[in-house]
Specification:
The chain is of the alpha+beta class. It contains 2 helices and 9 strands, in the order βαββββαββββ. Strands 5, 6, 7, 8 and 9 form a 5-stranded mixed sheet that branches. It has a 4-stranded mixed sheet with strand order 1-4-3-2, covered by helices on one side. A hairpin with a 3-residue loop joins strand 2 (32-37) and strand 3. The termini are far apart.
């Protein structure tokens, strides 16, 4: 098998509503819209990350051979580095967004889990000063 190298890492998130997800990621998290094939699919871009937003009618959401239907949520998440976590959390809370945790501090830095409209997690992370 030949693997093709690209300048971007791609992650697929299953989502409930493509247009709502586009607005969430582009309005609140600094992504730009790449391809839009709503209501089935869209891609949003941020730096080297290509986030594939797969709605209920996309090929990525089709049932598996054993009948299992892929669904949003879970504990896997994208990890976005931020410069000022307190400021960003304050702004996102003011916009009415949902967090699954409070800011957690550890030796590597600070993190918090933000939830997208379909229940997928985004970890906002501010590295510790060295």
């Amino acid at each position: 098998m030949a693997i093709t190298a690209t300048a971007r890492a791609s992650v697929r998130y299953l989502i409930d509503d493509v247009d709502r997800a586009i607005e969430f990621y582009t309005t609140h998290l600094g992504f730009t819209l790449g391809r839009n094939a709503s209501p089935a699919f869209a891609e949003v871009l941020r730096g080297p990350l290509r986030l594939l937003l797969s709605g209920p009618t996309s090929s990525g959401a089709r049932p598996l051979p054993d009948g299992t239907t892929p669904s949003p949520g879970g504990w896997n998440r994208i990890h976005l580095v931020v410069d000022d976590i307190n400021h960003d959390v304050e702004q996102l809370r003011a916009a009415g967004l949902t967090f699954r945790s409070e800011i957690i501090r550890g030796p590597g830095g600070q993190q918090i889990l933000l939830q997208d409209p379909s229940g997928n997690l985004i970890e906002l992370f501010q590295p510790a000063e060295r």
